[in-house]
Every structure is written in C-alpha cells, then in structure tokens.
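User: Hey, my collaborator sent me this sequence without any context and asked if I could get a structure. I don't really work with proteins. Can you help?
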Amino acid sequence: MAVYTAHEKTMTTWDGTELFYRAWIPEGGYDRALILFHRGHEHSGRLVGLVDGLGMAEYAVFAWDARGNGKSPGPRDDADSFSVYVRDADAFVNFVAGEYGVPVRNMAVIANSVGGVIAATWVHDYAPPIRALILAAPAFRIKLYVPLAIPALRLAMKLGLMKYVKSYVKSRVLTHDQAEQERFDQDPLISHSISTRILLGVHDTATRIVRDAGAIRVPTLLLMAGSDWVVKTGVQKTFFYNLSSPVKETEWYPDFHHAIYHEAEKSKPIRRTRAFIEEQFARDPELPSLVNADQAGYTKREYDRLRRPSRNPFYGLTRLGMATVGRLSSGVRLGLQDGFDSGVTLDCVYRNQPEGRLLLGKLLDYFYLNSLGWVGIRARKVHLEELLRKYIRQQHEAGVSVQLMDIAAGPGRYILDAIKGLPDIGISALLQDYKPVNVAAGERLAAEMGIADVTYRQGDAFDRERLAQTSPPPTIAIVSGLYELFPENAPVRNSLLGLAEALGEGSYLIYTNQPWHPQVEMIARTLTNREGKPWIMRRRTQEEMDDLVREAGFEKVEMRIDEYGIFTVSAARRLAR
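Assistant: No problem. I've predicted the 3D structure and written it out in structure-token form, which is a compact way to encode the shape of the chain:
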C-alpha cells in the first residue's frame, strides 16, 4: 500500500474564491497525479477510502471541495451557473500542475455522479490532454420522479419561486454497506438540497455533453450501477456510444447502488479503476493530431449532413417569414443584406439595441438579438476583452511596447473598447478586414470614440506572406470569429503560420472557436452568409482548434467559455522558433 502524507490546504480560483482541497503526497516521490471529483452534496473527505483503496504509490492524489460544498465557501450547493464549477475545475487542475509540478498530460481524473458531469464537461470544453477519465455513475440524467419536473422548475425559477430543491437521496439508496450508510448520515458537511439553477444547469449541460460526446477522445472508463435509484443508466450508455475515444471501456455492476466507490463490494470498481489508469499510463499518450479533421471524422460527418437538402417544411416557412415580416427587424434586414456572419451584423449584435419598423419590428429585433447564439457572441466579446486587457497589462508591466493586430476585425468595436478602457497604456493597433465597408465603418467608429493610434487596412486574413511581413511586428494578435466561418483547415493553417512568423517569442495569440452550437442546423437551413449562400458551419472541437494552434508554434495558456458552451476565447504564447 502506498504511504502518503495528507495535507489540507486552499487554493485561489479564478474569481478570488479560496477553495479547500486535500492532497495525498507519496513519500517516495511522484511524477503523476490523480484528480478526484466528489459527488453532488458531498466533499473531498468522502474520498479518503478511495485513495486508500487505490494505493498507487507513484501518484500524488488531489481532491477539491467544489464551491458551496464541504469546507469551501459559498451558498450551499449553489453558484452563478453550473459552468462556474467547470471553470473552477480547470483552475484547480492548472493550480496542481503549477504548484506540484505535474504536467496535465500526466494526470488522470476520477469522478462520481455530479462530479462526473463536471469532469466530462471540463474534458469536452477545455480539451485538456489528460491521460485517462474514469466516470462512476455520472449524473447525466437525474431521476426526479415527478412528471414534468424540469419544465416546472424552469417556470418556478423565472417566477422567483423554489430556489432550492430538497434532495430525496437517502443513504440506503446510495450503498448497501451499513457502515457507509452511517458515515453518510452522520457527516455534518453533507448537504441535502441543491439550488434550482444548478439542478437545471446539470440537466442542460449534461444534455449537451451527451449529445456532443463525439468531441471527447480522452481514454474513458465508465462504471455503471445496475440498481441506481439516483440517475438514469440509459443516458450513460448513450454518452459511451457517442464517445470518439480510441480507448473506451465500460463496467456494469448489476447489484450496485449509485455510490459505486462506497458500495459493499467497492474493491471491485477500485481494482478496475486502478488497472485502467495503469494501462493508459503504459500507452503512448499522444493521440493523432486533428489538423486534418476537415477531411474525415466527427464534425465532418455533421457538416456533410447539413450540406444535404432538408425536406422539413419548417425551415422553408422560417425563411419565408424572415424575408417578409422579419424585415421589420433592423437586425434581420441587415443580416439578409450583408450576411448574418458579417462584421456589420456582429457590430449590430454587440450594440444590442432593438430597432425596427413599427412596434412589431422592434419586438422582433429584441427576440432576434436575444437568441442564444447572439447572447453567446456577446459573452465572447466580454471574454475577448477580458483576455485582451490582461495581456496588454502584462506586456506593459514587462516594458513591452503594445502593438495589437486583428486580422479580421470588422469595425473592431471590441478592440476599440479595450483600448479606450486602458487610457494609461500606450497602445497601437492594426485592424484589418477584407471588406471595404467594414474598414470604412471601423474608421468612423474609431473617430467617434476619439481613438487615434489605430490603423485600418483592407486585407486577406489567409495571406500568409503578407501577415508574416507585418511591420511593426504585433505583440498581441487577435483572431475573433473568423476561423469558425471556414470549414476547411488549409486556409486556417496558412493564416496561423503567417501569424507565427510575424510574432516574436513570448508574444500572444488570442483566438476564438465555436465547439458547439445548439442551433447549427437551424442556421444552416435558414440564414445566409456574407456571400449570400446558406450559412453552413463545420464546428471544430476545442481539441482540433488547439491542435491547429499548436502546430503553428503556439502553446495554449488559458481559455474562457460561455455558460452555454458555444464560444471559447483562448490565449496562446508564441514558442521559440
């Protein structure tokens, strides 16, 4: 059995919250780590038995108390959104990597129940290069037992009612082990309710992750309980089927209740977990690169399907409605004129001021501007400006002359907003767009905002040679909302190589991606792009986008994603040539 020194500490997560965590450090040294995610309502102290049972001497083990759980602060079982837990997970793993010197590629994750949803979402959204993912009875669909419970809870939340849902889960439906039942019943740190928004967040996020599990390639072991009174195993099977992992295995325990690692025969899943982890660390950790994923694979199949005509009359009626009554909305009219993916359309979405002909037009424009995709676009702008300000300040404090470049800026409102928000820092910017109308609009906008040290030019974002010759060399390059519009990877690779040749070592690339969109088929069937053609997108998984950036000579250092999982904004550092 491994001999550990146990520690109880705190780490500061992304918003300044001090999260509690436990660390078990092997006395003989280590170069690998296990990251444990506890069940909903519970805490890291409940995982001591799992750590002892695994007894893996070469691995340091870390387990955190999610905010609002155990010894971590915050309202019990609540957060601003479920995505907060996922971002906390990313912060915790990066903290472990930095504080304890274990690279993420030498980590394996073990997660139970709601912790399994957090872990699976983190792997899906952030694409960390971990070695293995073990999910024990993940709560992809919680059994609520009340008809129409989810729509009823949505209505209650909108009305400000029923902010918390009391848990029906008793120890006897978690495990057959009476000693474990008593420990559960007597544990003062276990909560017995969950906020309505987090319960709905688990449901909605899990729906997205199960549907899009094809984006996950991490070797995965799924442990399922045959007598699970808490979650539905059928959805777990769908998740497993959808996975793209080259190594994916499942184990079925017919008589087990939900708390698999606390069951009477817990030694069975613990042995299986240990064996799976050891097998994955014995394998070559490098998965085939996804830089050619536009030629074959998961998102290419979806793209090919969207290119085929649809016989669904709903889409034809939607197009007719937009071309007639929809024109009363200023936003819809602009999209029909210049393309729903154009820079001027995005500028309209950023302004977010409903306009239109007659009261009906303004009402239609309000609903148009508040569709989920545009809400995500505005969240992307917030994240883009956040990272941009961060790296501008970082370069300024390091004595670097800040030179920005956006290769497809449109009017560049987000760049101008960021510059205006940092009046104490001297910032120069080169903003490029391929459309003269966007260049002209940007020049007018910069003049209106009183920003002088900005140059606009017309240019091709995929012209490698011209990008490489940019002078003065940019210290921060931005690519926002561009690569998502082009299904082929060849021009994207060309563009990234041009930027890599322009940027010096230690400079930064800030780039966006769209790994998921709940309305991707609706968009393909009803909206037109800047060329007047159907706006058919090929989604890139975050792993694919990161592979393209890595191939060009950059190292991703951090990422942001909206709570709906639609748009990401990442920062990458230019490596030495």
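In plain terms: The mean pLDDT is 95. You can pass these tokens on to your collaborator as they are.
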